[in-house]
Amino acid sequence: MVTTPNLSPENTELSADELAGLIPSLATKQDLNEFERENIIVATAWALSERILKQCEPWSEAYIRELHRRMFEETWKWAGIYRKINKNLGVPFEQIREQLPTVLGDAKYWIDNKIYDLDEIAVRMHHRLVLIHPFPNGNGRHARLVADVLLAKLGRKPFTWGAANLVSPGPPREIYIAALKTADSGDIQPLVKFARS
Predict the structure, then answer these.
(1) CA dihedral defined by 31, 180, 173, 84, rounded to 10 degrees?
(2) Which regions of 35-168 does DSSP assign to beta strands (E)?
(3) Nearest alpha carbon to residue 181 among 2, 4, 21, 1
(4) What are the boundaries of each domain within the chain?
């Protein structure tokens, strides 16, 4: 069983090859976070635009890759490309192409058959994307935006995710990580509650 690891404030460790894929020249982790944040703001506006919401299928693998690419295309050369090495978290990289379609298919099935409330479907999809950890970096931010897009596509308001910056260390991130770990054990409700807090 895959579980959510203890995450450091720096998030996923990047290999030398992955770091070589950094596009801008930045001096600090704070500079990197700010640069990524600006890229993500643009990608979020694109993803939640009425035109894109009408045509997108957030349960499709192509959309998952395209969204990650748009979120990080100004920051990382490998944006939208699955990781090619194992990390301190996530499934073995060889399993990404097998497990990701299962998650996406499950989400579509849950929607079509009204298995769970829409908030719970979005959170379950988010949690499983985090567990797979398909990309070298940005997986939590990506999975949260996927959940928000899914909700918007289905006529619901996106989550507030604690109305906090979950990249930076602090109480909101600690609550979020604790809720992910509780979801690993099969109790998704704290994560659902946090997503709407």
Answers:
(1) -10
(2) none
(3) 4
(4) 27-195
Q: What residues have CB less than 8 Å from 161, skipping those under 6 apart?
A: 144, 176, 194, 195, 197
Q: Report the alpha-carbon distance of residue 79 to residue 3 in Å, rounded.
A: 24
What average pLDDT does the structure give for the chain? 92
- Residue the block writes with tokens 């829409």: 118
Q: How far is CA 39 from CA 1, 42, 43, in A?
A: 34, 5, 6
Nearest to 53 by CA among 156, 140, 143, 126: 156
Give the mean pLDDT of 34-45.
96
pLDDT at 7: 35
The predicted-structure confidence for 93-108, as pLDDT tens digits, reads as follows 999 999 999 999 999 9
pLDDT confidence band for 5 (50 / 70 / 90): very low
Tokens of 95: 């399993």
Phi then psi for residue 76, to 5 deg, are -125, 135
Dist. CA 90–CA 39, nearest whole Å? 24
Q: How many Cβ atoms sit within 10 Å of the Cβ of residue 69? A: 16
CATH code of the region 27-195: 1.10.3290.10
Q: What is the pLDDT of residues 166-188, one digit of tens each?
A: 988 899 999 999 999 999 999 99
* Structural element, H or E, at residue 121: helix 118-132
**Euclidean distance between CA atoms 118 and 102, whole angstroms:** 18
